[in-house]
Amino acid sequence: MVVEMKENGVAAAADAGEKVAQPQLNVKRGEPTLVPPAAPTPTGEQYYLSNLDQNIAVIVQTVYCYKPSPPGDGKDKDDVATALRDALARVLVHYHPLAGRLGISPEMKLTVELTAEGVVFVEGDADCDLAVVGDLTKPDPAALGQLVYSVPGAKHILEMPPMTAQVTRFSCGGFALGLAMNHCMFDGIGAMEFVNSWAETARGAAELTVPPFLDRSLLKARDPPAHTFPHHEFAEIPDVSDTAALYGSQELLYRSFCFDPDRLERVRALALAGGDLARCTTFEALSGLVWRARTRALGLAPEQRTKLLFAVDGRRRFVPPLPRGYFGNGIVLTNAIATAGELLSAPVSRAAALVQDAVRMVTDEYMRSAVDYFEATRARPSLASTLLITTWSRLEFHGADFGWGEPVMSGPVTLPEKEVILFLAHGKERKSINVLLGLPATAMDAFQELMDEI
């Protein structure tokens, strides 16, 4: 931060031993408005959400930060909200379910009421420079939460719109776009395609590069449902280690750990060294490493069963593959289960092998079985004694150029659940991976020590 402040002459004061108050992010919001589609869209009916959409109905908050435009380029920060609002109205003609509201179908499932009410849109102003936002790889939920709009008093997702957008202008001329989107509307790939479609609309494109495919009935359950796999992702695992007490008694710390290409290669070497695997991907190796390290850091009892959940993109694994631009969740959760003793008494290669087995399990039949399992049971994946890894490292959110250039940084506001670990691409070449997680203070210190050994 001292480097960022040198332009203001603060560094000299700091060097002289004076205490200098760091600028704080303080956003003043205007009144929320609604942005409906720019042309008539279907109304008065329900839009079908598949069983894969039902499983992950959580709000995902992300922020995109844009630096000031160069002097004389004709673009002003005061124009950005108008440009984004107008482009949003136009792109919603294609993505019209986002302008509706969540409801419950006669089958007691989440659905979208096609009301064309519009996306909630808010403008805000921050009395500081964009630099104060800091490093999005180390999110500060209290501060960054000011850049994303949440409906006041909403107690559950039915009281929240599928999407809200907030444009925050900074005194330096930069701005931030904060989005809160319900995961039931789309997965990471779908969200990326929507944001990029919105951006190219703002840049004046006459047609979308990837128009959305809206028909989710492709993923309807079979009749009758036939779940042919055990689907342990739904299993409730007893917390015999009483980690709930640990989480309840200590502050939850968030940290980000960067794995550059050299460090990732060392992780892969560890995964291959134990003899359990002949080959493995970076994801399999890194997932096995952090699953094992988190297990040790939390001090789980040897008999404690622990579950690893992660999403596999099923778009190309379905038979036939899902159409390009599929608007919805094309991901399926797969799982691996082991006791803490099994993980910690074996090398990293054992955990990585379990991850690899979980990846290979995801076939067309497994995914259809998962769809049918929910149809028959209405069960949702349990996070008891679970680690859920979600991967954004392949999502090209840097392509969100609304006419002011690519975002200088983008990332999550916070993690949706304490059990979640996020893999984020890092650096301009996107060859490094940031591992973001939250742990109780003592466990985070232990996890840090384990990461320092890599």
TrEMBL record:
Query: One Pfam annotation, family name?
Result: Transferase
Location of region: Disordered = 22-41
Q: Which GO terms describe its molecular function?
A: acyltransferase activity, transferring groups other than amino-acyl groups
Recorded hits in InterPro entries, A to Z, give: CAT-like_dom_sf, Plant_Fungal_Acyltransferase
Q: Which residues form the signal peptide?
A: none
List UniProt keywords, sorted A-Z.
Acyltransferase, Transferase
Task: List the PANTHER family.
Answer: FATTY ALCOHOL:CAFFEOYL-COA ACYLTRANSFERASE, TRICHOTHECENE 3-O-ACETYLTRANSFERASE
Family designation? Belongs to the plant acyltransferase family.
Q: What is this protein called?
A: Omega-hydroxypalmitate O-feruloyl transferase
Organism of this sequence: Setaria viridis (Green bristlegrass)
